[in-house]
Amino acid sequence: MDSKLIELNKSDFTSEEELKQAIARACDLMENIYSSGHYPKMVVKRSWSKHNPVIDGELAQPSAYRWYLSREMERLVQNGAEVIIKPSREIIPLNDPNLFDNIDEEDWDLTQKKLFLFRAERIDISLDRLRHYTGTSAADFQRYILFTNYDMHVDVFKEKFPDCVKPSRSGVQMPAYHHKMENNSGVTLINIGVGPSNAKTITDHVGVLRPDAMLMVGHCGGLRNHQDIGDFVLADGYYRADHVLDDLFPIGIPVIPNYILNRYLLEVLDQHELNHRIGTVYTTSNRNWEFSKARTVEEIHQSRSVAIDMESSTVATNGFRYRIPHATLLCVSDKPLHGKPKLSEAAQSFYQNSKEMHLELVMEALQMVKDNFPEGLPNSSIRAFNEPLMGSGEE
Length: 395
Prior knowledge:
33% of the residues lie in helices and 21% in strands. By secondary structure, the protein is of the alpha/beta class. The strands form 2 sheets. A 5-stranded mixed beta barrel has the order 8-11-10-9-12, surrounded by 4 helices.
């Protein structure tokens, strides 16, 4: 066999172990091709598909998400697909002015499997920007991504996982912390700061790593009479008043959290007998929305929102766009419509009393995901009708 070409076909392997070894060699070849200055190309031939039998795509920095490539190739071959790995074009340097001509998201081909959703150039630039924004290597990112905007959650994470990978330098904009486990099955926490612009920026780049789940772990303003400071909010929908993705994703398309993630989060809340509400989260780009109260409150009433924040719908919308299961668990820190605005002294007391429990709830829910879906959550709800299925069947 050509040392620059690997073909994987189920009939060539007599055991699962032989297949795994061959997939490891295929991943090694992709990494070698990339290190030699070319994008590796994967061609997938699926005899069961009448309308879309061959899908292919180029990759970049395959070592950063090797766990994902291995899993997808194994699934494909086990389902009867033939997978071919070979070299493709020379890598376009990140400082080449032609780089951005090839990564416009409006050119997405949704008839391609999600494995090839991002072009190689986009993967390269996004992983470079992840290092810039988070201060950590893309290879350190784990399959389960938590977003927060408070240092206190970072403190709790570091206390729980003292050996976690931390930013390599100080002063990064959105520092990341990685509790690394075998096969990238650990948890990454990113302090994204405040606002939907940051939420969009980081999820744009995290998306190329194909994580198994993204969860927003934040605080919110409670909007209902029968909510108390410290109650939890589990989002079952979002009002997109942040507007940062309106030009890229039509405002009228429903965006809902992953049902299984929500089910486990609800189970954990019930097990701990914690007060919570399930409902719509209103996400705004205006931190001082109270200064234009009338208009905002009208939208809150119309949408029956139970909480207001600045990041949740942005994370959810990009999760939906990029086919990543997502959910939101917020904690009520203030009730601005009921005479309990976020004031400094009260807020600091609330933060100290809530931070450990908030993060622990999410970690317990993620453990349920790992126990029941170790190879990833079902994503049929975020798969377009014309995207290729993983298994056999007409398409």
